[in-house]
Amino acid sequence: MFEATKLGQKLPWNFKRYLLALTIFVFGCSKSLISNYYLPYIFAPIAYLLRLFFGKINFAIGEWVYIIICILLIINIFKLIVKIKAPVSSSTFYLHLIIRVFNGGVKLYIFFQLIWGLNYQKETPARDFHMQEVVSYTEAQMDSLSLVLIQQMNQTRPKLIDSSFQKLQIQDIFLKTQAAYADITMHYPFLQYQKPSLKKAYFPSWGDYVGYTAFYQPFTGEAIVRADLPVLTLPFTISHEIAHQLGYASEAEANFIAYVIGVESKDPLFQYATQLQLFTYAQNAQLLLIAKRGDSTQFQYVIARNKQLISPTVLADRKRISAFFMRKQELQIPGTTQLYSQFLKWNKQANGIESYNDVLLWALAYAHKKNP
Fold first, then answer.
1. Mean pLDDT (whole number) for 181-186
2. Rounded Cα distance, 141 and 101, in Å
3. Residue closest to 73 by CA, chosen among 96, 50, 107, 24
4. Confidence bin at 332 (pLDDT 50/70/90)
């Protein structure tokens, strides 16, 4: 075993790294610093260069990056164990191991925060869109929103020709989404999307087990989307991932940007896809509030009423989408949803996986701004 005097000298502390991590943490406590300096001068140039470079490659590098990271992690753990010469029974071995793992975690924290993570701490879209934030919604508001969305879905769906939109490939919708972002910059220049890097997932079946439909890869700047998703879910999903590429890290805020793209679009496919998605959120939110009151009669009434009001074509669309996700849900590895939910909570999204539903607050704020 190492002597006590030598032990302190040999411990692999890295105080410079710890100081840098602490500095980043303190910097991240200021929303204005993140929005005014990190986002435009650090994240935006890095993300632009990543999209410029990796966007020229016609397949998703990001998935392979995760494979390589897992392999390197296993190799480094093995090398670390071999490198430490103290006997397995020695407390020195475990102390060295803990410190080195901690050092690796701090290094990963620094890299992740600089390349992407600090976006979770930036100011909300309320600043960009000059609107008042809404902090809560009522059962009556969700009921009203659901009824409006039902009317919109019934009106928009006949504008879509099944034989046309069902034939669309994911690359077609990539191009449509880029065009939608180009159009929106006339009203909101900060949503300008340059050097697109939209990729079809090479391993879409991974999403069945981990539980994702698309993801932003911060190490490559790619938005990676499953091509096997129902066509009617793709416009909203792709718009959501582009929002991540622009620095909207929060899931609710990325959903809000996708919502704005959809409601402001002149393309009925984008309008309808957004209406479908938001109706699901609104109805679920209303039903959850009713369930908390324990009013089973009202719960069943709302479901039956909405089903009666929705046109048979829209109902069929919702049924197909629901069936797709139900099939995939059965394959999901237990615990992955909870793990991702915890990750979101660590990154200032208190509602975890339910943060996606918070787009309803932003939708209400946006509607109030448009019609005060």
1. 95
2. 49
3. 107
4. low
Q: What string of DSSP letters covers 315-332?
A: HHHHHHHHHHHHHHHTTS
Tens of pLDDT, residues 333-356: 544 444 434 434 444 544 543 444
Cα 186 from Cα 179, distance rounded (Å): 12
Domain that holds residue 106: 6-121
The pTM of this model reads 0.86
Q: What is the DSSP string of 59-124?
A: S-HHHHHHHHHHHHHHHHHHHHHHH--S-TT-HHHHHHHHHHHHHHHHHHHHHHHHHTGGGGGSPP
Residues 35 and 167 in one domain: no
CA atoms of 217 and 219, how far apart (whole Å): 6
Is 278 found in the same domain as 332? Answer: yes
Please tell me the distance from the alpha carbon of residue 90 to that of residue 295, in angstroms, as a whole number: 61
Cα–Cα dist 98/359, whole Å: 40
- Determine the residue type at 42: I
**Is residue 1, in this structure, part of any structural domain at all?**
no
Same domain, 229 and 143: yes
Domain shared by 77 and 208, yes or no: no
pLDDT digits (tens, 9 = 90+) for 273-315: 999 999 999 999 999 899 888 999 999 999 999 999 999 999 9
Residues 76 and 132 both lie in one domain:
no
| CB-neighbour burial class of residue 14 (10 A; exposed 0-12, middle 13-18, buried 19+) | middle
Which pLDDT score is estimated for 339?
46
